[in-house]
Amino acid sequence: MSPSHDAIELEALRARLADAEETLRAIRHGEVDALVIGAVAGEEQLFTLTGADQTYRNFVEGMSDGAATVSADGIILYANQALADLVGASCSRIVGQPVLALLTEPSWPRVRDMIGPASPGGSIEAVLLTVDKQEVPALVGASALTVDQTHITCLTITDLTSERNAEANLAHLAQHDALTGLPNRTLLTDRIQHALERRTTGTGQLALLFCDVDGFKNINDAYGHQVGDAVLKTIATRILSTIRPQDTAARMGGDEFVVLCEDLADPGTAAMVAARLSAAVAAVIPTSIGEIETTLSIGVALAGHGDDVSSDTLLRDADEAMYKAKRQGPNVIELFDETLRSMAASRLELLSDLRRATANGELRLFYQPVVDIVEESVVGVEALLRWQHPTRGLVPPDDFIPFAERSGLIVPIGDWVMREACHQGARWQRASRSGRRPTMSVNVSGRQLTHGARLVDTVQAALADSGLDPTALILEVTESALMDDAAAALRVVQRLKSLGVRIAIDDFGTGYSSLVYLKRFPVDLLKVDRSFVAGLGRNRDDSVIARSVIELAHAFDISAVAEGIERPEQLAELRRLDCRYGQGHLWSPPRPAEELGHELVVSPLQPTTAASTVA
Ligand code: C2E
Ligand code: MG
Ligand code: MG
Predict the structure, then answer these.
(1) What is the distance in A from the centroid of ligand 1 to the CA of 364?
(2) Ligand 1 lined by 590 (C-beta under 6 Å)
(3) Which CATH superfamily is domain 350-611 in?
(4) Is the CB–ligand 1 distance for residue 441 below 6 Å?
(5) pTM, to two decimals
(6) ∠ CA 61-62-64 to the nearest 5 degrees?
(7) Closest C-alpha residue for ligand 1 atom 22
(8) pLDDT tens for each residue of 60-97
């Protein structure tokens, strides 16, 4: 709109107002400025525009708030640039439109009242609609004006967006911790309440993990608050990265954090979450003054479906359990409920014991001979992990490897296995008098495969340190581990192969076995799972599966190794099927290195009485 600077006679204006059509035309030409100026002046007396009134007009034009004049029937007679900017249209587009078109429907009745003859004036909050349908919160103020019996309204429209944002920020601040950005006690309590209300399924457990940083005061005292704050921030980030997206991590103030988990399958899972948290926090924290190590004391409280608890009791229980944990020394997890504790305790205990097992030298490797079925001689061994627990005795891998997998402990344990097995393999190679170099098979878990770079480094270092011939090392990977993320697994396997080692697929036939694998993976050996070997010579179906696995291996030019051979008739059947290698109690169960050494290095094993010495 290009407003005319000419003065307008009052009489002429009044005449135009009487005729809406004519008024609009005039307005579009910018002649209606006089109305605005009259309103801003707050005077009901109209006067002709003179050069002096230009000041008023400049004022309205330059206002940062939107301004408009509206006829009694709601037509916009004038709009300033600020309003045009807010709405995203030009002034001339806005003028002539019903004012309600600029607002969302809920505010229409109140705006109608404001512009009507009986307008109470004042202001209301409404939502402005931009031309591209964006909603803008706004304060709409009105003042009525009568121009020679003609009622018009002057509106001011103030954009409330930044105020709303500020309000939202304030609300966020009121519910969050400023240092870490985590929810604070207020929001946590609210979330716990909602979680308690949501417990609908019979099995879903709700767990509250109260975590306190061990020795945090010392960190603060020794290195100052800046370092202390940095440590707390790192701990907050680690806690967040450990829990599921639907869980809540909150800071209670100081060095206390609380994690809320919903829908846990059983108390053991809560214990596992706690174990993961403590492992995540226990890793060294880099700070400006160097690396800092710290641990968590964690108290866990649980609420099942039927439990009648409030958020306060649950928090208090978890807090109490945490204090109990604190008293037992750093890095302890304590469960609140006595009965639930007994269910989860042994798992938890096993896990914390396992964490110390490597350092305490409680892990051992047993070795089971792998036999060439045709020549009836030992060609190598498979290293099988054993845990010599101080009170439980010898713990078999199936009892702790699944935990180690889930908690991530399998990665450092796997490193140890790799080093130990390579050293033993190299020792046997050096001692070999038969000229044969026994192979060393090492089981690799899926979790290790997902930490591919570390696995490759570990294997490389273990080979270099021990001097074991890389071609003697066979890495056994299960089908399911390869399948988890086949593309990533393939990359790792290729890098391992480039070190010169061989790859075996373990437990073949139990997973998603398909030809696709064998084609895609550079595999050297297939291990026929012992469940198929078990029925050989007895069960026709098993014979069929075992035969097809062996034939499959041959078709791809891969050697087959049958696991779990216990009876001579199984061996006979495997010979018929042309299976080259086997292992099992028929020859020997897994045994310590010192027991096996002689047989391995000097003379071939005979399939004899070993089966009766099975542990
Ligand atoms: P696997 O790799 O399939 O190992 C073969 C399992 O069959 C071993 O059980 C072995 O003791 C058992 N076995 C061998 N011959 C016979 C037999 O004639 N009859 C019967 N009934 N069993 C036989 P083990 O040592 O209890 O190991 C179980 C599983 O634990 C292994 O299965 C492997 O998946 C895992 N495992 C063992 N050591 C390690 C390790 O160092 N790292 C990883 N990631 N997993 C391991
Ligand atoms: Mg194996
Ligand atoms: Mg196996």
Answers:
(1) 14
(2) yes
(3) EAL domain (3.20.20.450)
(4) no
(5) 0.52
(6) 115
(7) 564
(8) 777 888 988 888 888 888 888 999 999 999 888 888 88
